[in-house]
Amino acid sequence: MFRQLENAGLADLHFASDPETGLRAIVAIHSTKRGPAIGGCRFIEYASDDEAITDAIRLARGMSYKAALADLPHGGGKAVVLKPAGNFDRSALMQSFGRFVDSLGGRYITAMDSGTQVTDMDAIATQTRWVSCTSQAGDPSPYTAQGVFEGICAAVHHRLERDRLTGVRIALQGLGHVGLALARQLHAAGAQLLVSDLDRTRVGQAVQAFGARALAPEEIYAAPADVFCPCGLGAIINDDSIAQLNCAIVAGSANNQLAEARHGELLRQRGILYAPDYLINAGGLIFVALHHAGAPASAIAAKVQGIGNQLTALFEQADREGRPTSEVADSRAEAIIARAGRHAGQHPLETL
Ligand code: NAD
User: What's the pTM value of the predicted model, to 2 decimals?
Assistant: First the structure.
C-alpha cells in the first residue's frame, strides 16, 4: 500500500466506513502544495476494494496535473464511494459521505464525477461546505465539452492543417453528459460524426439529431476517422485499441485515457497526435474552481477557450523535442507542482 502511494507521489489516503448508511468511501489527496485538493466523487461498483483504491489514487494524481496546467490554485484529490450491492438510502449515504469530507477540514473539496449527480452534491452540502456542483452551482459538463471542442479544433489545425471542422470525421465514443453536448457542437461546426455508446437510446438520439452514423461499441476503434474522441471511461488507449486505431488524432474528455504511460509513446510511433486528457478536459474543473471564486462568466469562458492555445503550444514543444505529448504534459505539470511551496493553510474557499 505505501509503495503504491509513493509511486503515485500521493500525500495521503483516507477511508471511511459507516455501517448505518452503508458508506464505504476513500478520499485520495495527491497534493495540497498549490492549494486545497479538488476533484470529483465517483459512485460506481468495483470488483474489489483494491480496484477502488487504485482508481482513487490514479484519478487524484490526474487532478493535480490538471489543476497545475490550468493554473488553478489547487492540488488534486479524488473520492470513491463504493456503490452498495443491495437497497440503500442514497441521500443518507451521501450525507454520511459529506460528514467524511467535512472531517478533512477543507483539505479536499468534492464535486460530481461518474455516477454522481447534482442532487448527491446537494445532500453532501447539508453536511459540509467543501463541495461544489450543487444545484446552485450547476453541472460542469458543458464547460468540459467546450474545452474538448477547442482542443479538437487545435489538434485538427496542428495535424491536418485545417482551420474548420467542416467534413472532419470524428469517431465519438460515449454520449453521456460531455459526449452529447460535444456532439451537438461538433455537428454545428460541420463535422461528420460516427458514434457509439453502450446505451442504444443515446446512440439513437445522436443519429436523429446530428445525422451521426451509429457503430457498435467494438467497431469504433477501427473506424476510419480523422479524430478518435473517447468520452466514455478511462484506460481505453491500450495495446489492443492502438493496434486498431485508424485515425490521425486522439482527443476526448475521458480521464486516464492511456492504460499505461508507455501508450503515449506508442501513439507517437504510430503517427497519431494525442491531446493529453487532463489538459483537454480541464474545462469542467476550471468552471468549478472559478465559479466558487466568484469569477464572472466571461473570465470562465476565456480560460476554457484558452485550452486550444495551450494544446497548440504543447504539440509544438512535443514536435521540437521528438517526445510524446503525454510525456511533455507530465513534465510541465510536475515542474509547476514542484515549484509550488507547501500550502500554508489559508482558508480553502478563499484561495479558490
Ligand atoms: P457519463 O457517465 O455521463 O457518460 C459516459 C457515457 O459513456 C455513458 O453514456 C456510457 O454509456 C458511455 N460508455 C461507457 N463505456 C463505453 C464504451 N465502452 N463504449 C461506448 N460508450 C461507453 O460521463 P460524462 O460526465 O459524460 O464523462 C465522460 C468522461 O469524461 C469520463 O471519463 C469522465 O471521467 C470524463 N470527464 C468528465 C467531466 C465532466 O465535466 N463531466 C470532466 C472531466 C472528465
Answer: 0.91
